[in-house]
Amino acid sequence: MLTVLLAIGILVLLSLIFGAILGYANVRFHVEGDPIVDQIDALLPQTQCGQCGHPGCRPYAEAIANGEAINHCPPGGQATIQALADLLDVEAIPLDGDHGTETAKRVAVIREDECIGCTKCIQACPVDAILGAAKQMHTVIADECTGCDLCVEPCPVDCIDMVEVGVTAKTWSWDKPQGIAATSLNIIATDRQTEVAH
Amino acid sequence: MQAAKIFSFHGGIHPAENKAQSLQLPLGRPSLPSELILPLGQHIGQSSRPLVKVGDKVLKGETIAINNGFLSSFLHAPTSGTITAIEERLIAHPSGLSDLCIIISPDGHDTWTTLEPLHHWQDISKTDVLAYLSEMGIIGMGGAGFPTQVKLQGAYKNPLTHFIINAAECEPYITADDMLIREKTLELVLGIEILQHLVQADHVVIGIEDNKPTAIAALQAVLGKRNSKIQIAVVPTKYPSGGEKQLIQLLTGKEVPSGQYPADIGILCQNVGTCVAVHDAITFGKPLISRFTTLTGDALKAPQNVEVLLGTPVAHLLDYAESEPKKLNRLIMGGPMMGYTLNSAAVPIVKTSNCILAASKKELPPPAPEQACIRCGMCEQACPASLLPQQLLWFSKSQEFEKAEHHNLFDCIECGACSYVCPSSIPLVQYYRHTKSSIREAREATVKSDLAKQRFEARKARQDAEAAEKEAKRLARQKATPSKAAEEKKAAPANAAAPLAAAPATTDESKKLKVDIAIGKSKLKKLQKQLLEAQENEHVEEISNLQLQVTEQEKAVALLEEQLAKTVEAAPIAAEANATKPAPAPVNDELKKAKVDVALIGVKLKKLQKQLADTPDDQELKDKITTFEADLKTAQDTVSKLSDSTQTTMSASTTEPKTAISDELKKLKIDAAIAKAAVKKVEKALKKAEEIQAPEINAIRQQLKEAQQRADELENALANPATTTTKTETIAEVAPNSVDADAAKKRKIDLAIAKAGVKKAEKNIQLLKEQGKDESEIEASEWPKKLIEAQEKLAALEAEESTPVTTSVATHVEGTTEAIAKSQAKAEPEMDLANQIKKEKIAVALAKAQINKLNKRLESAPEDADSINQEITSTEQRLQSAEALLEKLIHSQTNLQENR
Amino acid sequence: MTEYLLILVSTILVNNFVLVQFLGLCPFMGVSGKLETSIGMAMATTFVLTLSSLCSYLTYTYILQPFGLEYLQTISFILVIAVVVQFTEMVVHKTSPLLYRVLGIFLPLITTNCAVLGVALQNISKQNGFVESILYGFGAAVGFSFVLVLFSAMRERINVADVPTVFKGSAIGMITAGLMALAFMGFTALVQI
Q1: Helix/strand/coil percentages in chain C, nearest 5
Q2: With an 8 Å Cβ cutoff, are B394 and C162 in contact?
Q3: What average pLDDT does range A23-52 have in this prediction?
Q4: pLDDT of res. B580
Q5: What percentage of residues in chain B have a pLDDT greater than 90?
Q6: Stated pTM of the model
Q7: Which residue among B142, B354, B591, C169 sits deepest, i.e. has the most Cβ atoms within 10 Å of its Cβ?
Q8: CB within 8 Å: C160 and B397
Q9: Could you say which protein family the record assigns here (chain B) (predicted)?
């Protein structure tokens, strides 16, 4: 009987000691906030477009940190999903179509002769990329525009177009090679010509 | 002159040289093409900014575009001619895209502009020489197109140990530099001497491959003659010894560290072409407008080197070198290792084009299909940059950019040696290029997203600050209001403590009244708003209806206000008087009641009269009116009686003269309030008039002034109540005046609206006429009718204006009624009368117009004569009755006025 | 001194806990996808293993043995391990949030890592002293880390290589692990304790 009591007593004592240690550690190593949010936020495209259903990129980053799906960001597209998947060590999933589709990069362009100077788009722009004053023509600073679409809706005269940013010789990039061709029949080495002439 | 020590670099390959073909023929000089295409971005960095316009005439060597920032260059006209266009043209770029180009149509004279050589380059500052080189449009002609002055400036960072002239030209097929050295040996050496003067390096070495013996001999001859210190380093032929970093390694044994420039280790490298261009610019003042280019390949019958003007289309050169279109399979700009395929021969030669390779299918077969990597490691053996091509391939394939960068992908010079040796025909360089551009894109995207984030956060901070400011203001206001109220509350009981028990009752009553007034006022506002809308929309019927309602509401409010004033007054009076005389209060009450009765009866009467106007034959109504009139009279009698008795009571209670005075005071206050209201109204009218640009603005302004004066007078009177008794009469006179002004203003607005209505109707008729509708159709439409109505209304209003004394009172019942109901109950019927008169006048005018119209119709449609005649008769009857009524009304009004 | 060295060599190479004794295979296969992650896991495990072997030795020697409660060793060791793992989790969460995130489920799983309990129990059965216990635990942890890092570096390369489709993923991983185990058998002749 005594042994049983002793055993129980020892175990309780051990538990108490370890509990005290853990309690102290919990206070000593208390984590303020969630630093992972910053890292997620850094991967998002920062268009602040709200297509994910959150008012900006950071709120979505917070939502992801709290377990929301990583595929709600159309402007970032598959590349962002891949980056998020790598960061969070989860599986990369295809983009959720409910939140929009991945489009080519666009910028807003105001048809300036139609602008009535209502300043509504200026208020809508999340990155202050529209310049203008009341009753003055507005214009978009193309370099600052994130192509978020948010200014299109408020315009009372529909004078804002989303224009795709075309590829110029300066922004052009090389294509990825097709890889190992499935139809490659010239497997036998002697059939191939590797020498440049002669 | 002495032989330099030669080192070695890792890797490298030995592809077939194929240089002999293009050296068979001497240097060629193609004819002028029909147009020259000069891309604005021929160099690394910002595109140049055009200086010329379409249609401008330019001379050979004239500046046509200037630099656009630090890393940019100038551009010059390669020949004299006209600028025919500045537009997007296909350019020599692996993407096959277009870019902005200046198109020159040569005039064939090839006239030089005035050349200004820099003769004293040894005496002037180096900075000036560099600026001059920049203005001459000189860029590195080896391939990258780095602006030369920028490169030279970079070389000032560290003292130079070596100045290397790159004459290696390691790529197969290309012999342009070889030919240049042979043709322009002296110029080259002089150019090197100029550059050496600029950079002051310890050693000057020309690095040249041993497959160019003629060029080496020529150089040695010139250097020997000049007894020059410039060394010649003959390096073994190995691709890519002409790469900058590889040549540096060959000649100095030093390796340029990853991510750094040769200048960082005290070495400067320049291409031979650049040196010659520098010489030409400084000695002759010739800008960079032409270059040596190799035309070669199996598809050309006459492969050779040419000195070609920049901007010459490739097609022109192919013609010159007698190309065989049948044999031509691939057109390559640059060499077979590092060049790129051209999709079109329309692209121009630019400052960096060193070779055009027109290859046959046999010569450059299409790349074999890619196969799996067998990890043979040959690529690693061949890589001149000592990289791990296989690893880079894996990372590129699996898009692991970070790791690729970690494995120094950006040190890859894209020489193509790895692809060349790969037994699996993997296009390694393409993978690297793709990965490099993807990484660059990602970097740019990061920069952009960081910027967007910054801006978004700045905006959010700003918005938050604004919101916080607003909130703070609101809080401050909230704090201020309750404290005031508290003070008042504190003050109130103190004041109320002195008077007797009557006070609480009166305050209760006044509270109730105040609430009622507030409700009444809000209703009034609503109605006025509706009225305004109706006026704007020209709903005639609605307007009259609404006006009536407004009048009533105003009356009700006025009554309530009066009551309130009385109650408020009653409190102190009661307090003072209740010891001696409790009588006046009930009398006052009765008086008030009687007055209300009078007002109510007056309103009812008015309504009935209105109905009567619509249906003049209704006997019942007439009876009713008579009874009401009788009622009104009795009520008025009561009022006069009561007021008499009040007066007597008051005079009787001589001990309390204050009561009378306070009564006066109250009246004065009300008058003042009315005057103020009038001022406000006139101001509002003025605003409206300004908006519709009515011609009455000045008159209204005058009224405003007068009204303000009156308000001031009244306030003055209020300020010194001692004189009030004497002034009462004056004020009594003044009050209606203010009402007059008010009325006049309203009248004018009505007039303006009526005029606008007429105009609109006329316009519409005009429109209909223009649309080609005939008279009858127009007649059928409602517009002529509306026009006539509007005209009548206008006429009536104008008539009123001409008789201002009577009508001004009449036109705006609401204003006057209010005032009169307050000041003297007797005025009430007069008011109604005036109103009535106005209405009848309108009715008369309407009837007349109707008759006119009917007559017109009679003329146009004689077949309907009977029915129309009937109508006319009935209308005339109506007119007569209306006129009779009008007369009666005017008569009674005169009577009333006389009575008063 | 030689004895201590022998303990280290034995636990790291000859009697490697993963490839020879086949303990702790779960994190070995699970966290070896990325080199970065596996290094983090290796460090966490090293910390936990060393600390837990120390704590379990103390618990056994100074609490269980004096009271003759040796039969409670398993349950009290589990308690000790759980506490140490919890403690480690808190420290990692504070110092390296990303590592904490990346380790994910595997960090708490160290609790059930059989290598940890195995080391504690073997310490008792081998009657290791205080220093020997710590060294034994540390050596086991280093051996675990060693093969985990090696394996993950291999897997990273295998991931981008042209592996036949049927062998892709875990299959080629298992094969690789088997080959590694074969290779480690070669150390058997090195030293024997």
Answers
A1: 80, 0, 20
A2: no
A3: 82
A4: 42
A5: 35
A6: 0.62
A7: B354
A8: yes
A9: Belongs to the 4Fe4S bacterial-type ferredoxin family. RnfC subfamily.
